[in-house]
């Protein structure tokens, strides 16, 4: 399996969508070869993707007011007035994570990513959903080590496309019905649901805000794929996309506001990083209250190559940012093998999130 740089994407994997991008290698950012394999995988308008309807936000109000005052001939002192107040209601329990508590540090997150009807985009799109979650549970136990296992479903909620689409954003949104089905499965199995965003030319924060109706739940977080975040004139699959520490901070701040408003437990914000150039001005990344920011090393290759990519990406990591590690069932094993749980857990710092594609 040839790689020009450690951990860079492999080529020649078949596309799973209806409009798969078919082109040769083009010029990548700063001389980096374009992610041809990923271009073949994710820039398709994959089956099952529809446009999100407007995401509403439920609000609840509790009417209050004083009852009518009685009138009598004799004037009573306030101390003699009978109390008509109702018993104090039992305090409502604070929302917790799917397996208890409000802090993620007690858990090792382990999950699959994918999209229904698009097997090439990840294992989560294959077969029966409940069977897949049970397999995630089994896999999570092998990586738990000194923590409790926490299964994760990472669903592609916004997918980069090779065509501009009617709004020129080069992205499609997964339908609310699909997100609801995955959220229901997450609740059945006490799993976390991460909504993955490949924004194309759309605003990253805008895509996050469009998912607000799901983010008010204590078991839903966000995963960002900035290699699919395109600038003006850029097309998904032709070059690596990019984000910045400031933009990641803006997303973290928005999630923190939701957490504070709804008294939610900690919420994960994962960003997958395939190369150092994908995140600029990393020092500007500022973790926000209630948000656990996780940088997930997203490189393909042999165990040695993946370790090299890991060392490059965790070097000079901002304080407060945790780590994740991505494994590929197919690409990592082309001419090599999948890393073992023991090898992954030997990485330093030890990954908080292990994700499989």
Automatic annotation (TrEMBL):
Could you tell me where the Basic and acidic residues compositional bias lies? 93-102
* PROSITE patterns assigned to the protein according to its UniProt record, in alphabetical order: TAT
Region Disordered: start-end pairs: 1-102
Bias type Low complexity, positions: 44-66, 77-87
**This protein's name:** Lipoprotein
- Organism equals Streptomyces violaceusniger (strain Tu 4113)
